[in-house]
Specification:
Blueprint lengths: L1 H18 L40 E6 L9 E4 L9 E7 L2 E6 L2 E2 L4 E11 L6 E10 L4 E10 L5 E7 L6 E10 L2 E18 L4
Antiparallel strand pairs: 1-4, 2-3, 3-11, 4-10, 5-10, 6-9, 6-11, 7-8, 7-10
Length: about 200
């Protein structure tokens, strides 16, 4: 019997190692948990902070990925469309993958985090938007990645991530929004955020 158990231990350790690469948590947080809690994301509503287009989108960086001769002025602060506040971020159709990344914010190993994004498309069947909450160690190496997908439609839709159980040495986090190439119309993003809504007890 002991030999049989010992035979299975290497396989069990391999399964545990493989599963540690994927982040699956049973945590579930809600919008109501953010009441009275500061939003860790700078400029969560994509407001304009300067008349200079290079500095207007405070708190975020935009990267266009892909080989094309198409113009790259595809991301705009839109004052005509918003679910909260007076503006949103509009991304127009293009052959590029658009990656929008927040400035870094402090996170704690013992924190439980709620991340949110609202999105809308000009068409009923808009592109699928990927939202990631990425945590990093102090040396810049990735600690964990939590992700979800939002299929955009012509009404505002919300997607959220509940995250926790971060590894020792974690130091900061970022939100990352990825929009794949799409052929027509626009996508709007608004009312994003990340909140530390829970504090795990330290034994």
């Amino acid at each position: 019997m002991i030999k049989r158990v010992l035979h299975f231990i290497p396989n069990l350790l391999l399964l545990l190692a493989l599963s540690s690469c994927l982040v699956h948590t049973s945590l579930v947080y809600f919008d109501k948990d953010t009441e009275g809690v500061p939003n860790l994301v700078s400029n969560p509503g994509f407001s304009a902070y300067s008349l200079d287009p290079r500095q207007a989108l405070l708190g975020w960086s935009v990267d266009m990925q892909g080989d094309s001769d198409a113009p790259k002025n595809l991301v705009f602060i839109d004052g005509k469309e918003a679910i909260q506040g007076n503006s949103s971020l509009r991304v127009d159709a293009s052959p590029y993958t658009v990656v929008i990344t927040s400035d870094a914010f402090r996170v704690s190993r013992y924190g439980g985090y709620y991340t949110r994004l609202w999105a809308k498309s000009s068409t009923a069947l808009g592109p699928q938007i990927n939202l990631r909450f990425i945590t990093f160690k102090s040396n810049g190496k990735i600690d964990r990645q939590f992700r979800t997908k939002l299929k955009s439609t012509d009404t505002w839709e919300k997607k959220s991530i509940s995250a926790g159980f971060l590894r020792p040495g974690v130091a900061f986090g970022r939100l990352q929004i990825t929009i794949p190439p799409f052929t027509e119309g626009s996508v709007w993003l608004d009312d994003s955020g990340c909140w530390e809504v829970h504090r795990f007890r330290i034994d």
